[in-house]
Design a protein that fits this description.
heterodimer, A: about 300 residues, mainly alpha, MetI-like fold, 13 helices, about 75% helix, flat, B: about 425 residues, alpha/beta, D-Maltodextrin-Binding Protein, domain 2, 2 domains, 4-stranded mixed sheet, disordered N terminus
Chain lengths: ~300, ~425
């Protein structure tokens, strides 16, 4: 009897200590998300109002060239950025794992870009890529007057400049994760492969990479979150230009929320981003839960 | 006589005695975005005048206009407003008025006869429902052409009179290997250039038709198409480094003689001045227009949120009055590069371009309200995207461009 009472009160204590965190989650995350969705159904401009207009903001949003370009850019950037960062990061890790001299120094050098903010990264690459005083000018001054590297001022190529800056920034992080994974692989596997006479590339491709699944997943998730919230790189590198060629969804939301005083349209865009992310993540979560249940 | 002397003396004594107490009470926090060298020197004029009047100026400068406005609006909506906050002359504070969050300054305006000394468009831009809700403090001209005199002399060209004229000059300059048009390829300046061409080709009629009446028929008309074509032509006179460039870097090209001319507001004047260049000798300024011209007037205003504290309310009245004092106006605008908001002040203390501007603004037919005064930020932003897209996409036809502009007008923002 006394034991049962003790158990009950300890459960109550646990619940009450979790309550603040639970309330914060309920109000800040769920509450704000719900409010954002509601705002996207109103005619709000500078200040929030509750005039219901149905899906009008979404109609405007999906006939807006800048929004469509933003979404297209995000998909393109996301695929290229994640793939290139993973490949480059993995190759760097493999290179360092060859017991090279000055490993510590190289590791720091490769990881260094990650310690900088996207704003600094964007600014540096903006200077490097600017045709009138960056790489193009340098090579031309070396005596190659026909040399052209003006991707950043051309609408059809500017998005690759963002990928370049992003990969430079993130590859070091992927390298660090991969290196930790590589160090965790048993020496005996390498010995066994050598006995079997497998070429080194084959060992990496067929044995090491499958064993690094968790590392790839970690790096992939980290990279994906920086894709969705991509904002500062675009702002500092190109400010969305030339024209609207390097606009991204998060920048669309921010610009319309504040500068353009269009809360309705901004929240419609934010809601669309949320729906997209959820529709990608939900099947994965469902699959995980089911797998855990079966087990 | 003697009595009145005593009365005056005792009044003076009373005022002097009262002022230390008032100094403690009259505290005013001001949110503004004037952070660059010339700008902070200009805002210091207001602060000094307020201190002289016995107040305490609490400076809350926030870098970047949008950031400053967001901070001020959030604080006002959240119930902790500053005593005074800056906006651009226009519609940025509409919803604060509708929400009853600002005090109206109409009584002060009547007392100071502001409405008879300020240009009508400026008064209108501060007026909602027949009452003034903000104090205009300056007029910025947005459509100046700044040119390097040596470069224009070297091709034997005089000041341009229209954009067609300017294109003829730019052809000559281009042949000499100089950048004809110094350009900063950011959305806001791409819009600025289009607007300047629009006013040249269509005059105030087309300007007001588009931005105020949202007349779709006018957008389909010949004048608008002519503006679109001329704007497209200008693409070939800018250099490949222009996308993303800052406006002051473009001004530097004109100052150094690497470029012939730039379209920019009168804030560019500060760059010439700090490089030691003299208006009329080293550089020139021109307002051009083949349909009767027009001086696009933007500017800044201060708005006053409703405050509960009566001492703060007194500080607001003192501030509102001293902002438009003729002497304050001259001192402030000398530093800011804009022109006084009242046309009855002595222009001879201002520079050559400002004097030119004062003459233009005194003529009613030349007063053109800026886009910010005529249309809300949502619409201007949407149009800005379209102009920017057109400028950067040479394959876009005039028809496609017109369609996109019309679809923005149809959104009823």
């Amino acid at each position: 009897m006394s034991l049962a009472r003790f158990r009950l009160s300890s459960r109550a204590a646990a619940a009450s200590s979790l309550l603040p965190a639970f309330l914060v989650m309920l109000v800040v995350y769920i509450g704000s998300t719900g409010w954002t969705v509601w705002m996207s159904l109103t005619s709000s401009r500078m200040l929030p109002n509750n005039t219901f207009v149905g899906l009008r903001q979404y109609e405007i949003l999906f006939s807006n060239d800048r929004w469509l370009t933003s979404v297209h850019n995000l998909v393109l950037f996301g695929l290229l950025f994640v793939a290139a960062s993973l490949v480059l990061g993995f190759l760097l890790a493999v290179a360092i794992d060859q017991k090279v001299r000055a490993e510590d120094t190289l590791r720091s050098v490769f990881l260094y870009p990650y310690s900088m903010s996207f704003v600094v990264t964007g600014l540096v690459w903006q200077w490097l890529l600017n045709p009138t005083h960056g790489i193009q000018k340098l090579v031309r001054d070396w005596g190659f007057p026909e040399f052209a590297f003006d991707w950043i001022v051309r609408q059809d190529t500017v998005i690759y400049c963002l990928v370049l800056g992003g990969v430079w920034h993130a590859a070091g992080l992927v390298m660090a994760i991969m290196l930790a994974g590589l160090r965790g692989i048993d020496e005996d596997i390498w010995k066994a492969a050598r006995v079997d006479g497998l070429p080194v590339w084959r060992v990496y491709l067929s044995i090491v990479i499958p064993m690094l699944g968790a590392s790839f997943a970690t790096a992939g998730v980290l990279l994906s979150t920086s894709v969705v919230r991509l904002y500062d790189l675009s702002v500092s590198m190109t400010n969305g230009g030339p024209g609207i060629a390097s606009e991204v969804p998060a920048k669309f939301v921010m610009d319309h929320l504040f500068e353009r005083q269009n809360i309705g349209l901004a929240t419609a865009a934010a809601t669309s981003m949320l729906v997209t992310v959820v529709s990608v993540v939900a099947p994965y979560l469902f699959w995980r839960v089911r797998k855990a249940g079966v087990r | 006589m003697m009595r009145s002397f005593f009365a005056t003396a005792s009044l003076v004594a009373m005022v002097t005695a009262a002022s230390p107490a008032a100094a403690q009470e009259m505290k005013a926090e001001v949110i503004h975005w004037w952070t660059s060298g010339g700008e902070s020197a200009a805002v210091k004029v207001f602060a000094d005048q307020f201190t002289k009047a016995g107040g305490t100026w609490v400076d809350s400068a926030v870098a970047g206009g949008a950031n400053a406005r967001t901070a001020a609006i959030n604080r006002t909506v959240g119930g902790n407003p500053p005593a005074m906050m800056q906006f651009n002359t226009g519609k940025q504070f509409d919803e604060l008025v509708e929400g009853g969050m600002l005090i109206d300054v109409d009584a002060l305006a009547t007392e100071g006869k502001w409405k008879s000394v300020m240009p009508e468009a400026i008064v209108n831009a501060a007026t909602r429902n027949g009452k003034m809700f903000a104090v205009p403090i300056n007029i910025h001209g947005q459509n100046w052409i700044w040119f390097n005199k040596q470069v224009l002399d070297s091709v034997g060209a005089a000041e341009p009179k229209s954009w067609d004229d300017a294109i003829a000059i730019m052809d000559k300059v281009k042949a000499r290997g100089i950048i004809p048009l110094a350009f900063s390829g950011q959305k806001v300046w791409e819009r600025g250039l289009f607007n300047a061409v629009l006013l040249d080709k269509g005059g105030p009629a087309l300007w007001n038709g588009l931005y105020s009446k949202r007349d779709q028929a006018m957008v389909k008309g010949a004048d608008f198409r002519a503006a679109a074509e001329t704007y497209a032509k200008l693409r070939s006179y800018v250099d490949p480094g222009s996308p993303g460039r800052n406006w002051n870097d473009a001004t530097a090209l004109v100052i150094q003689g690497k470029a012939a001319m730039q379209l920019m507001g009168d804030w560019a004047k500060g760059e010439f001045a700090s490089a030691g260049k003299v208006a009329g000798k080293d550089f020139g300024c021109a307002i051009i227009g083949s349909k009767g011209g027009g001086y696009v007037m933007g500017g800044d205003i201060f708005a006053f949120p409703k405050l509960k504290d009566p001492a703060a309310a007194k500080a607001q009245v003192t501030l509102a009055k001293l902002l438009v004092e003729p002497e304050t106006q001259i001192l402030f605008n000398q530093k800011k590069g804009s022109i006084p908001v009242r046309i009855d002040v002595d222009a001879s203390r201002l520079d050559l371009c400002a004097q030119k501007a004062m003459k233009l603004v005194a003529d009613k037919s030349q007063q053109v309200a800026s886009v910010e005064m005529l249309a809300p930020p949502a619409m201007n932003g949407a149009l800005e995207d379209v102009y920017s897209q057109y400028w950067n996409t040479p394959s876009m036809t005039v028809d496609q461009f017109v369609d996109k502009v019309i679809s923005v007008l149809k959104q009823q923002m």
